[in-house]
Amino acid sequence: MSFEELSKWRAVTACTGRLYCQGRSNVTHSRCPQGHAVKGSIDRKFKSYFAREKPGVDFALLRESILGEPPERHSQTRRHHYVPAFLLQGFTPSGQRDDFLWVHDREQGKAWRAKPDQAAHERDYYRVEIPETDPNIVETTFSQMEGQASLLLQEMIRSHQLPHGEDFQVLIGFVTLLALRTPSFRGMYERNMEHLYRHQAKVFLARRELFDQFIEEKRKEGVEIPPEITYEGLRDFAFDDERYTVEIPRTKSVQMLLEMWQSLVPIFLDRRWSLFYTRPDERHLFCSDMPVSITPTSPDFKPRFLGFGLRQTELTIPLSRSIALVGSYEAPSITAEMPLGLVRETNNRTLSFAERFLYSAEKSLVI
Q1: pLDDT in tens, 11-27
Q2: What angle in degrees, to the nearest 10, is found between the helix axes of 165-180 and 250-269?
């Protein structure tokens, strides 16, 4: 039985009548996916998280908007998690931060025990280099938001219920960030940017007229062009990919992460979200370095690219060893216990989407 089939089967018990089922930010009256009229609007405070019209990101404004305070200097934390430690603690046997979980390295075929704070991190991963700006401002901001999400997650584990209103919006904002902040996703962005920059260089140097025009403009500006820089030399250099590398500054990658986060939150909110929980005596869920997996809901649907806003797909996010969040466009929003088949399906999705690392309470990864 798939998540979609279980959702349809339990739909009669799942009608919530909450606006966040629809995820619209520009309405005051709407209908939930079950068809009931509801009232409300996206919380103003949540809008301030993402309401940015100018290109680029003002990091000072980002912190002030989220934390409600001006930027200031903080301790220079160097260990930045791409899977938050508070989330990993839910995959320890006790669910405590000081307990150990198992880290499985698929690349090296090894497994070892580690505490949540010792796993899924990179040095200076969110560090930015901007004049008169705390280099840890993004890491500090994420930590503050994770503190809010941690409280919501603990309540979800206890009650087996989705949060409401502003709390739900904070949860989906956190889940959206969880999907974007991984090294795999950053690497994909940086490879795309490298390809773009190489292509732009080749287009610019494909015609001599463009080069000559550029050189003339620079000379008028008083820029001295060294005689050894010639059109032929630069053209041959640009078209030989083996002769150079393109490095994307970390600050640029972090800036793009924040801009994509802003853009994708409404798309994540537009899905219908369900919470599933395991039986106490059932097998447990595990997590990976790609915590949000994307899966087609039909075996006949085989898109060339799986995107977060693509219809006929589900997003699956194990939030602890006992609960998972699933977002769909077609299935209704429900809360339900997971049969063994769905526990296995969730773990299979996590396993297939993982880049390198898996995190579990047990040494053996039992699907």
Answers
A1: 332 332 222 232 333 32
A2: 140
Q: How far from each other are the two terminal CA atoms of the chain, in whole angstroms?
A: 16
CA–CA gap between residue 87 and residue 318 (Å, rounded): 9
Sign of CA dihedral 21, 25, 28, 29: negative
Length of the chain: 367
H/E stretch holding 274 reads strand 272-277
Question: Could you tell me the CA-to-CA distances from 143 to 66, 139, 159, 242 in Å, in that order?
Answer: 11, 6, 24, 40
* pLDDT confidence of residue 62: 52
Contact assessment for residue 298 and residue 51, using Cβ atoms and an 8 Å cutoff: no
Residue ranges of the alpha helices (H) in the chain?
A: 3-9, 44-50, 59-67, 85-88, 137-159, 165-180, 183-204, 208-220, 231-238, 250-269, 340-353
Please write the tens of the pLDDT for every residue from 35-44: 333 333 333 3
Whether 218 contacts 189, CB under 8 Å: no
Query: What is the C-alpha separation between 41 and 137, in angstroms, rounded?
Result: 30
All residues at 6 or more sequence positions from 239 whose CB lies less than 8 Å from its CB, including other chains: 202, 205
Kindly state the helix (H) or strand (E) to which residue 335 belongs, with its residue range. strand 335-337
Identify whether the C-beta of residue 55 lies closer than 8 Å to the C-beta of residue 92: no
Question: Beta 335-337 vs 272-277: how paired, if at all?
Answer: parallel
